[in-house]
Fold this sequence. Notes:
Layout: H1 2-19, H2 23-34, H3 39-63, H4 69-90, E1 97-99, E2 105-106, H5 107-132, H6 142-159, H7 164-173, H8 179-202, H9 209-230, H10 235-258
Antiparallel strand pairs: 1-2
Helix pairs in contact: 1-2, 1-3, 1-9, 2-3, 2-10, 3-8, 3-9, 4-6, 4-8, 5-7, 5-10, 7-8
Amino acid sequence: METFGYIGAVCIGLILGLTGGGGSILTVPILVYVMLLNPITATAYSLFIVGTTSVFGAFQNYRKDLVDFRNGFLFAVPSFTAIYLTRRFIVPVIPDVIIEQPFLLMKSTFLMVFFAVIMIFASLSMLKKKKMNLGEPKVVSMTFLIIQTFMIGLIIGLVGAGGGFLIIPSLVLFAKLPMKKAIGTSLFIMAMNSLIGFMGDVQNIDIDWKFLLSFTSLSVVGIFIGIYLNRFVNEAQLKKGFAYFVLVMAMFILYKEFIA
Length: 260
């Protein structure tokens, strides 16, 4: 099983390089269901893996002028603030048993199911907006964007995601970035979000650095492959494919939690 996990590490980077998001969508299930880590540790490790991998991806996209720093900082600062606070203070105080009656709901199950539900909404939002984007562009205020990205940060902090699957729809729909520039900008945002969020975990969990660094190294290899392949992919197909990928992974998590 570990071999499949390490192959999955390369796939994590591949997905990040191709889509600018979705790394955590693979990372958390692989760490939980293949490498058999508990969800709390897995979500913490996911932040480091996705964050470190995204640094390399963001730099490669910067060299191609595919990073919008203005929108990057606008989205990153509120979100990484919320992520750090969530990982440092909120996640540790969630009780191991959330509900006992009329059914048992454990903290680990709650986090994985919450992750899947957010993924479903994000994917459906992208698919729906894709069909409706011929109308008048939305005008949104700076205050709205700050509040929105702070709330995204709270969600990301709970599920241990880099947030690309939530950030990319916002960059496309509200910042009006073309898909490939949204991908590069998303990697820049995720690098900050994830690594700052991981700092909130360092004091709360024991970290197996040997495993974490080896897994992350394979993911970095994958992102270079993904960035290379990205140049051959049509933007419209990439956006649609990304949305369906998020939806399929959400269904897989719900299946593992409730059926398997």
